[in-house]
Here is the input.
Amino acid sequence: MRIPLSYVFKRIGFLVAVLFTAATINFLIPKLAPRDPVQELVNQKIASGGLTSQGAAEFRDSLRKLYGLDKPLWQQYLTYIWNTMRFDLGYSIVNYPVRVDFIIGQTVFWTLGFVGTSTILAFLIGTVVGALVGWSKTSKWFSWLMPPLAAFSAVPAFIIALVLIYFLAFKLHAFPLRGGYSATIVKDWSSTEFLLDVAHHAILPALSMLLVSIGGWSLGMRSMMVTVEGQDYITFAEAKGLKGSRIFFRYALRNTLLPQVTSLAMQLGLIVSGASLVETMFSYPGIGNRLGAAIAALDYPVIYGIVFFLVVGIAVATLVVDLLYPLLDPRISYSGG
Amino acid sequence: MSEPVLQVKNLKVYYYVEAGAVKAVDDVSFTLDFGVKMGLVGESGSGKSTMAFALMRMIKPPGKIESGQMILDGIDLLKLSEEKMRQTRLRKLAMIPQGAMNALNPVMRIDKQLIDGMLDHGVIMSKEEREARVAQLLEMVDLPPKVAKMYPHELSGGMQQRVTVAQSISMEPDVIIADEPTSALDVVIQRQVMETINRLQQRLGLSIILIGHDMGLMAQSVDRLAVMYAGKMMEIGETHAMFRDPLHPYTRLLIESLPVLENKGVFSGIPGITPSLLNPPEGCVFHTRCPKAWNLCQEATPEFVEIKPGRWVACHLHTA
Here is the structure.
């Protein structure tokens, strides 16, 4: 099936509208906080003895001017939208003069690494487990997997992270307590030693994400499998004398995968944002942790930049699902909607 | 007549629920001869569909085939292993499902669904042979060749039902069980689909069990008629003989309940409702609604006997 161009344009138009709305909300919400990040930065400098009160006022005014904070809100908004459209995310206030896109680039791969891996693994394991539990012709022993999986899915990831840190890192010293790599190691992406150290640090954060999400994937898959098994086409497939494996894979699994794949795409969009708390627990150098720090310091450009980046991620993932879904499910056509 | 292709003897299928055993099929026996089309009629809940699934050996818990024999070509289906039974389905015994709208896999093209049954029965075909076979099967059920590359949702209900008919004949089975194949279709399409089934029966020499509740449709299309009531077989015989001279009062009432063009607006139904299969009445199951019941009917269950060649009935009026 070919994808009609009009459909693609319509979807892209929709994407732009979503981005614009999200960017607007993104701009307004931090402004509601009754704080002044520039003043806080200046106070900090005074406290550390780096500034006199005369110099402080000049420093504050020049910072305000630099970030456009002296202008009325509507002007700030227009400037912000204009810059965002050009993907110019500006400079961090707290870490002046570090560029925001540099901060994103520095942190995003840490997050993509461990959250991406755990999301894909959880999807694969959860889908397979859920399918086996839901299908009545598999061993009844599989159903014993369900209570623990359901329990894990009901506990927030950061609680599981705490438990893992306490037992595996703090008590057993099997894994590092915090960070993305050891402080003592040379940061060199081409050395095996460094890569192993990174993997060693990533295991606990990834595991806490994995344990939480496997349950959701398998519960969803199980209920869809039960529903599909009651369908007439499964009964008729059996009456056709098809092999059990063909009925399972081509008739049951193929139909249950449709909603499952949609959720996966949505989840991929959320990869970056979903892990903030876990990253904070492990002081992991990822984008979620950085966003948390930026919010704490009310570092506007960094908050705007990271949140906008996340929104783009989700919107693009949605676009990809919209474009690919009719290929997976022939009943959905590009013409409608 | 000729020799039997399928013999069912004393078949019992029970569903075990909390309140006890529901006797959906209770001690049913009949014979189907080669090349014969037999209709199986009865009210809702009389055990027709259970009968169909029992013959396919696809009764799911809490249902269970209690006892009996189902002999197809000299082999008792109830003695086959699960794998042998799977190989028997479609090759020797095929099914046309009720409500074809949901009987096809929505995400698979028609040609794949026509062929996969054959592949799973060990038929080895090249790509060209597959295409030729699909085209041939579609032609046999009067569908255009382009249907091969379509998805089920692109077909009308009648076309979908034709696809299921094409699937059921793909391995040229001996017996086809058609479970109300036209009940979801409008009358015009019903007739066309029935004509297709009739033509295929002649061409391939099929034996067919046609399940339904439409006595009018049955009168037109089957050679023999079997009447079920509350899980029991009431009467079996040649269709015309049954309509001319119904022996069992239930058969008579079913025939009389058919609307007649001359008597506009006058319908005679059967008073009362089907008894609970959990607690069927003592004696004859029909005595609670039977206009001709007498005291023996409440006491003894009538035997199902052949009172003249090819004519079976379970009624004290004829056997006591």
